[in-house]
Amino acid sequence: MQTEFRLPAAFALIRIGIAHRVLLAASVAFLQSPAMSQTTEDFVGNWINVYPETRAITRIVLTKSDEGSELIVHGFGACSPECDWGEIRIPFTGNPLVGVYDFGFKTATLTMCLASPGLLFIHADNIFQDGRDYVNDQLFHRDANPPLAGGDASAFVGDWFSLYPEDKDLEASQIDTIRILRTRISAVAGNLEISVHAACQPRDCPAADGTATVVAAGNPFTADIDFRTPEGVSWGNFKFTFQLFEGDLLHVTGMLWENALHRAESPAICYVPPRPSFHRSDIDGNGVLNISDAISLLGSLFLGGASSACLESADTDNDAAISLTDAIYILNHLFLSGPRPVAPGPPDDPCGPDPDPPGSVGDLGCESYAACR
Ligand SMILES: [Ca+2]
Ligand SMILES: [Ca+2]
Ligand SMILES: [Ca+2]
After folding, report:
1. Of 40, 239, 317, 326, which has the highest C-beta tally within 10 A?
2. Structurally, how many domains does the chain consist of?
3. How much distance in Å is there from the Cα of 293 to the middle of ligand 1?
Protein backbone atom coordinates (compact mmCIF):
# COMPACT_ATOMS: atom_id res chain seq x y z
CA MET A 1 0.00 0.00 0.00
CA GLN A 2 1.31 3.42 -0.83
CA THR A 3 1.55 6.13 1.73
CA GLU A 4 0.67 9.51 0.41
CA PHE A 5 3.60 11.83 0.68
CA ARG A 6 3.09 15.22 2.31
CA LEU A 7 5.61 17.98 2.32
CA PRO A 8 6.19 18.93 5.95
CA ALA A 9 4.40 22.04 7.13
CA ALA A 10 6.61 22.94 10.10
CA PHE A 11 9.39 25.44 9.66
CA ALA A 12 12.70 25.27 11.42
CA LEU A 13 14.56 28.46 12.24
CA ILE A 14 17.76 28.13 10.30
CA ARG A 15 19.54 31.28 9.25
CA ILE A 16 21.54 31.55 6.10
CA GLY A 17 25.17 31.06 7.05
CA ILE A 18 28.42 32.17 5.54
CA ALA A 19 28.81 28.94 3.61
CA HIS A 20 25.69 29.81 1.74
CA ARG A 21 27.08 33.17 0.69
CA VAL A 22 30.37 31.70 -0.41
CA LEU A 23 28.64 29.12 -2.53
CA LEU A 24 26.36 31.75 -4.00
CA ALA A 25 29.35 33.82 -5.02
CA ALA A 26 30.91 30.79 -6.65
CA SER A 27 27.75 30.08 -8.59
CA VAL A 28 27.36 33.61 -9.79
CA ALA A 29 30.97 33.59 -10.89
CA PHE A 30 30.10 30.67 -13.10
CA LEU A 31 27.37 32.68 -14.76
CA GLN A 32 29.87 35.33 -15.72
CA SER A 33 31.67 32.91 -17.94
CA PRO A 34 32.11 33.66 -20.77
CA ALA A 35 32.85 37.28 -20.00
CA MET A 36 29.70 39.38 -19.87
CA SER A 37 29.31 43.08 -20.43
CA GLN A 38 29.75 45.17 -17.36
CA THR A 39 28.13 48.51 -18.07
CA THR A 40 24.93 49.93 -16.60
CA GLU A 41 23.44 50.06 -20.10
CA ASP A 42 23.63 46.29 -20.37
CA PHE A 43 21.32 45.95 -17.38
CA VAL A 44 18.84 48.64 -18.42
CA GLY A 45 15.56 47.23 -19.66
CA ASN A 46 12.14 45.85 -18.90
CA TRP A 47 12.89 42.30 -17.82
CA ILE A 48 10.05 39.77 -17.93
CA ASN A 49 9.99 36.42 -16.14
CA VAL A 50 10.32 33.63 -18.73
CA TYR A 51 7.73 31.67 -16.78
CA PRO A 52 4.36 33.45 -17.09
CA GLU A 53 2.77 31.46 -14.24
CA THR A 54 5.42 32.37 -11.70
CA ARG A 55 4.35 33.15 -8.14
CA ALA A 56 7.50 35.18 -7.56
CA ILE A 57 8.83 38.24 -9.41
CA THR A 58 6.87 38.77 -12.61
CA ARG A 59 9.01 41.52 -14.06
CA ILE A 60 11.68 43.98 -13.11
CA VAL A 61 12.44 47.33 -14.69
CA LEU A 62 16.02 48.58 -14.54
CA THR A 63 16.85 52.17 -15.41
CA LYS A 64 19.91 54.32 -15.01
CA SER A 65 19.95 57.23 -12.57
CA ASP A 66 20.45 60.73 -13.98
CA GLU A 67 24.04 60.86 -12.82
CA GLY A 68 24.61 57.38 -14.26
CA SER A 69 26.30 55.86 -11.22
CA GLU A 70 23.25 54.05 -9.90
CA LEU A 71 20.70 51.62 -11.22
CA ILE A 72 17.07 52.08 -10.26
CA VAL A 73 15.38 48.76 -9.66
CA HIS A 74 11.60 48.58 -9.95
CA GLY A 75 10.20 45.16 -9.13
CA PHE A 76 6.75 43.68 -9.57
CA GLY A 77 5.47 40.55 -7.86
CA ALA A 78 2.79 38.02 -8.69
CA CYS A 79 -0.54 39.17 -7.27
CA SER A 80 -3.80 40.08 -8.87
CA PRO A 81 -3.52 42.81 -9.86
CA GLU A 82 0.26 42.97 -10.13
CA CYS A 83 2.07 43.92 -6.86
CA ASP A 84 4.25 46.97 -7.21
CA TRP A 85 7.36 46.49 -5.09
CA GLY A 86 8.44 50.09 -5.61
CA GLU A 87 11.89 51.35 -6.45
CA ILE A 88 15.26 50.87 -4.84
CA ARG A 89 18.54 52.44 -5.96
CA ILE A 90 21.76 50.50 -6.00
CA PRO A 91 25.27 51.59 -6.93
CA PHE A 92 26.54 50.03 -10.12
CA THR A 93 29.31 47.65 -9.14
CA GLY A 94 29.52 45.45 -12.20
CA ASN A 95 28.08 42.04 -12.91
CA PRO A 96 26.40 40.72 -10.75
CA LEU A 97 24.47 43.43 -8.91
CA VAL A 98 22.88 43.05 -5.50
CA GLY A 99 19.82 44.98 -4.31
CA VAL A 100 17.78 44.59 -1.12
CA TYR A 101 14.06 45.20 -0.75
CA ASP A 102 12.93 45.71 2.83
CA PHE A 103 9.21 45.09 3.11
CA GLY A 104 9.13 45.17 6.91
CA PHE A 105 7.72 41.66 7.21
CA LYS A 106 10.54 40.35 5.08
CA THR A 107 13.63 41.36 3.17
CA ALA A 108 14.32 40.17 -0.34
CA THR A 109 17.94 40.24 -1.43
CA LEU A 110 18.18 40.06 -5.20
CA THR A 111 21.41 39.01 -6.88
CA MET A 112 21.03 40.00 -10.51
CA CYS A 113 23.37 38.55 -13.05
CA LEU A 114 23.46 38.97 -16.81
CA ALA A 115 23.54 35.44 -18.15
CA SER A 116 23.66 36.73 -21.72
CA PRO A 117 22.81 40.07 -23.34
CA GLY A 118 19.13 39.08 -23.45
CA LEU A 119 18.79 37.06 -20.25
CA LEU A 120 18.93 38.21 -16.66
CA PHE A 121 19.22 35.68 -13.88
CA ILE A 122 17.92 36.64 -10.43
CA HIS A 123 18.62 34.67 -7.30
CA ALA A 124 16.34 35.89 -4.49
CA ASP A 125 16.90 35.33 -0.77
CA ASN A 126 13.66 36.04 1.08
CA ILE A 127 13.98 36.25 4.85
CA PHE A 128 10.83 36.74 6.89
CA GLN A 129 10.75 38.48 10.25
CA ASP A 130 9.71 35.25 11.97
CA GLY A 131 12.88 33.58 10.77
CA ARG A 132 11.53 31.62 7.86
CA ASP A 133 13.40 32.08 4.68
CA TYR A 134 13.35 30.75 1.20
CA VAL A 135 15.28 31.19 -1.99
CA ASN A 136 14.26 31.07 -5.59
CA ASP A 137 15.98 31.31 -8.93
CA GLN A 138 14.32 33.03 -11.82
CA LEU A 139 15.20 33.85 -15.39
CA PHE A 140 14.06 37.02 -17.17
CA HIS A 141 14.15 38.03 -20.79
CA ARG A 142 14.47 41.55 -22.10
CA ASP A 143 11.24 43.00 -23.49
CA ALA A 144 9.34 41.33 -26.34
CA ASN A 145 9.95 37.66 -27.01
CA PRO A 146 12.19 35.31 -25.04
CA PRO A 147 15.41 34.41 -26.91
CA LEU A 148 14.54 30.74 -27.28
CA ALA A 149 17.17 28.54 -28.86
CA GLY A 150 16.47 27.23 -32.32
CA GLY A 151 17.19 23.82 -33.71
CA ASP A 152 15.39 20.53 -33.34
CA ALA A 153 14.63 18.42 -30.31
CA SER A 154 18.21 17.14 -30.16
CA ALA A 155 19.20 20.54 -28.76
CA PHE A 156 17.57 19.47 -25.48
CA VAL A 157 19.58 16.26 -25.27
CA GLY A 158 22.19 16.15 -22.54
CA ASP A 159 22.83 16.09 -18.83
CA TRP A 160 21.70 19.29 -17.18
CA PHE A 161 22.69 20.34 -13.68
CA SER A 162 21.19 22.85 -11.33
CA LEU A 163 23.13 26.06 -11.21
CA TYR A 164 23.48 25.76 -7.47
CA PRO A 165 25.29 23.12 -5.45
CA GLU A 166 22.92 20.33 -4.52
CA ASP A 167 22.55 20.97 -0.82
CA LYS A 168 22.96 24.72 -0.55
CA ASP A 169 19.44 25.92 -0.96
CA LEU A 170 17.93 22.90 0.74
CA GLU A 171 19.55 24.06 3.92
CA ALA A 172 18.63 27.68 3.47
CA SER A 173 15.06 27.37 2.39
CA GLN A 174 12.23 26.85 4.80
CA ILE A 175 9.25 27.01 2.50
CA ASP A 176 7.72 23.80 1.17
CA THR A 177 8.84 23.28 -2.37
CA ILE A 178 11.01 21.02 -4.42
CA ARG A 179 14.33 21.78 -6.02
CA ILE A 180 15.29 20.28 -9.33
CA LEU A 181 18.86 19.07 -9.09
CA ARG A 182 19.58 17.18 -12.28
CA THR A 183 17.81 16.55 -15.54
CA ARG A 184 18.84 14.04 -18.17
CA ILE A 185 17.24 14.23 -21.62
CA SER A 186 17.89 11.52 -24.20
CA ALA A 187 16.60 11.03 -27.72
CA VAL A 188 15.04 7.61 -28.24
CA ALA A 189 13.17 6.60 -31.39
CA GLY A 190 11.94 10.09 -32.17
CA ASN A 191 10.89 10.80 -28.59
CA LEU A 192 12.58 12.55 -25.72
CA GLU A 193 13.16 10.51 -22.59
CA ILE A 194 13.35 12.72 -19.55
CA SER A 195 14.65 11.88 -16.12
CA VAL A 196 14.46 14.50 -13.37
CA HIS A 197 16.07 14.16 -9.96
CA ALA A 198 14.72 16.50 -7.30
CA ALA A 199 14.92 17.06 -3.58
CA CYS A 200 12.30 18.60 -1.37
CA GLN A 201 12.72 21.52 0.95
CA PRO A 202 13.23 21.53 3.87
CA ARG A 203 15.55 18.58 3.63
CA ASP A 204 13.87 16.16 6.05
CA CYS A 205 12.30 14.24 3.22
CA PRO A 206 14.01 12.00 0.68
CA ALA A 207 14.95 12.97 -2.83
CA ALA A 208 12.83 11.56 -5.62
CA ASP A 209 13.07 10.75 -9.29
CA GLY A 210 10.60 11.17 -12.08
CA THR A 211 10.66 10.04 -15.67
CA ALA A 212 8.60 10.72 -18.74
CA THR A 213 8.72 10.05 -22.45
CA VAL A 214 7.32 12.76 -24.67
CA VAL A 215 7.04 13.35 -28.36
CA ALA A 216 9.61 15.99 -29.17
CA ALA A 217 7.30 18.91 -29.86
CA GLY A 218 9.12 22.18 -30.11
CA ASN A 219 10.58 24.64 -27.66
CA PRO A 220 9.19 24.92 -25.01
CA PHE A 221 7.57 21.55 -24.39
CA THR A 222 5.74 20.15 -21.40
CA ALA A 223 5.68 16.77 -19.68
CA ASP A 224 3.69 15.27 -16.82
CA ILE A 225 6.09 13.70 -14.37
CA ASP A 226 5.19 11.52 -11.42
CA PHE A 227 7.90 11.71 -8.78
CA ARG A 228 8.67 8.69 -6.63
CA THR A 229 11.08 8.32 -3.76
CA PRO A 230 13.35 5.24 -3.79
CA GLU A 231 10.73 3.61 -1.53
CA GLY A 232 8.03 4.23 -4.11
CA VAL A 233 6.28 7.05 -2.26
CA SER A 234 4.66 9.41 -4.73
CA TRP A 235 5.04 13.17 -4.62
CA GLY A 236 2.21 13.55 -7.08
CA ASN A 237 1.99 14.36 -10.75
CA PHE A 238 3.92 17.49 -11.66
CA LYS A 239 3.42 19.52 -14.78
CA PHE A 240 6.87 20.34 -16.11
CA THR A 241 7.90 22.92 -18.67
CA PHE A 242 11.25 22.78 -20.44
CA GLN A 243 12.49 25.88 -22.23
CA LEU A 244 15.82 26.11 -23.97
CA PHE A 245 17.40 29.53 -24.36
CA GLU A 246 20.24 30.87 -26.41
CA GLY A 247 23.54 30.29 -24.70
CA ASP A 248 22.81 26.73 -23.56
CA LEU A 249 20.48 27.58 -20.69
CA LEU A 250 17.68 25.18 -19.92
CA HIS A 251 14.83 26.47 -17.78
CA VAL A 252 12.93 23.72 -16.01
CA THR A 253 9.80 24.45 -14.04
CA GLY A 254 7.68 21.93 -12.16
CA MET A 255 4.16 22.68 -10.95
CA LEU A 256 2.19 20.36 -8.74
CA TRP A 257 -1.54 20.67 -9.04
CA GLU A 258 -3.63 19.13 -6.33
CA ASN A 259 -7.35 19.72 -6.10
CA ALA A 260 -6.81 22.42 -8.69
CA LEU A 261 -4.70 24.39 -6.21
CA HIS A 262 -1.24 25.61 -6.91
CA ARG A 263 0.91 23.77 -4.42
CA ALA A 264 4.54 23.99 -5.37
CA GLU A 265 6.65 25.84 -7.86
CA SER A 266 10.26 25.10 -8.41
CA PRO A 267 11.99 26.99 -11.13
CA ALA A 268 15.52 25.80 -11.64
CA ILE A 269 18.00 27.46 -13.89
CA CYS A 270 20.27 24.82 -15.27
CA TYR A 271 23.38 24.83 -17.33
CA VAL A 272 25.32 22.47 -19.49
CA PRO A 273 28.77 21.86 -18.07
CA PRO A 274 31.43 23.16 -20.45
CA ARG A 275 32.44 20.51 -22.97
CA PRO A 276 35.88 19.04 -22.38
CA SER A 277 38.69 20.47 -24.48
CA PHE A 278 41.45 18.32 -25.82
CA HIS A 279 44.00 17.85 -28.60
CA ARG A 280 43.20 15.21 -31.19
CA SER A 281 45.62 12.27 -31.46
CA ASP A 282 47.51 12.92 -28.22
CA ILE A 283 46.58 9.47 -26.95
CA ASP A 284 48.77 9.53 -23.84
CA GLY A 285 47.62 13.04 -22.97
CA ASN A 286 51.06 14.56 -22.43
CA GLY A 287 50.47 17.54 -24.69
CA VAL A 288 52.90 16.36 -27.39
CA LEU A 289 52.21 14.40 -30.56
CA ASN A 290 54.86 11.79 -31.40
CA ILE A 291 55.31 8.11 -32.15
CA SER A 292 54.53 7.22 -28.52
CA ASP A 293 50.89 8.15 -29.18
CA ALA A 294 50.62 5.69 -32.05
CA ILE A 295 52.32 3.00 -29.97
CA SER A 296 50.03 3.70 -27.04
CA LEU A 297 46.97 3.40 -29.30
CA LEU A 298 48.18 0.14 -30.85
CA GLY A 299 48.87 -1.18 -27.35
CA SER A 300 45.33 -0.48 -26.21
CA LEU A 301 43.83 -1.95 -29.39
CA PHE A 302 45.85 -5.15 -29.63
CA LEU A 303 47.81 -5.76 -26.43
CA GLY A 304 45.25 -5.04 -23.73
CA GLY A 305 46.84 -1.72 -22.82
CA ALA A 306 44.85 0.99 -21.06
CA SER A 307 42.65 3.02 -23.37
CA SER A 308 43.01 6.77 -23.47
CA ALA A 309 41.26 8.78 -20.76
CA CYS A 310 40.08 10.98 -23.61
CA LEU A 311 38.43 8.75 -26.21
CA GLU A 312 37.87 11.64 -28.58
CA SER A 313 41.58 12.32 -28.64
CA ALA A 314 42.19 8.71 -29.73
CA ASP A 315 39.65 8.99 -32.56
CA THR A 316 42.20 10.76 -34.76
CA ASP A 317 40.01 10.88 -37.88
CA ASN A 318 36.82 11.51 -35.82
CA ASP A 319 34.81 8.80 -37.50
CA ALA A 320 33.19 7.72 -34.21
CA ALA A 321 35.36 4.62 -33.89
CA ILE A 322 38.78 4.01 -32.41
CA SER A 323 40.58 1.59 -34.66
CA LEU A 324 43.82 0.69 -36.40
CA THR A 325 43.03 3.41 -38.91
CA ASP A 326 43.58 6.04 -36.23
CA ALA A 327 47.07 4.73 -35.43
CA ILE A 328 47.93 4.60 -39.14
CA TYR A 329 46.60 8.15 -39.49
CA ILE A 330 49.03 9.34 -36.81
CA LEU A 331 52.02 7.55 -38.35
CA ASN A 332 51.08 8.79 -41.79
CA HIS A 333 50.90 12.35 -40.50
CA LEU A 334 54.16 12.15 -38.55
CA PHE A 335 56.33 10.41 -41.13
CA LEU A 336 54.72 10.72 -44.53
CA SER A 337 53.35 14.27 -44.36
CA GLY A 338 49.82 12.90 -44.23
CA PRO A 339 46.85 15.09 -43.22
CA ARG A 340 46.69 16.63 -39.79
CA PRO A 341 44.45 15.12 -37.10
CA VAL A 342 41.00 16.65 -37.49
CA ALA A 343 39.44 19.39 -35.33
CA PRO A 344 40.25 20.49 -32.72
CA GLY A 345 43.60 19.34 -34.15
CA PRO A 346 46.90 18.11 -32.72
CA PRO A 347 48.73 19.72 -29.76
CA ASP A 348 50.15 22.60 -31.80
CA ASP A 349 46.57 23.77 -32.46
CA PRO A 350 44.45 25.46 -29.74
CA CYS A 351 42.58 23.18 -27.33
CA GLY A 352 38.97 22.66 -28.30
CA PRO A 353 35.89 20.46 -27.96
CA ASP A 354 34.70 17.69 -30.26
CA PRO A 355 32.69 19.23 -33.12
CA ASP A 356 30.05 16.46 -32.90
CA PRO A 357 26.86 17.37 -31.00
CA PRO A 358 26.76 16.29 -27.33
CA GLY A 359 25.14 12.89 -26.96
CA SER A 360 25.39 12.11 -30.67
CA VAL A 361 26.91 8.89 -32.03
CA GLY A 362 30.04 10.85 -32.91
CA ASP A 363 30.50 12.09 -29.34
CA LEU A 364 32.81 9.51 -27.77
CA GLY A 365 33.47 11.66 -24.72
CA CYS A 366 36.64 12.84 -23.03
CA GLU A 367 36.76 12.02 -19.37
CA SER A 368 40.01 13.76 -18.66
CA TYR A 369 42.73 15.46 -20.65
CA ALA A 370 45.32 17.19 -18.50
CA ALA A 371 47.03 19.17 -21.27
CA CYS A 372 43.95 21.38 -21.84
CA ARG A 373 42.83 22.30 -18.35
CA1 LIG B 1 51.35 12.41 -26.66
CA1 LIG C 1 38.60 6.77 -35.86
CA1 LIG D 1 33.77 12.87 -32.23
Report:
1. 326
2. 2
3. 5
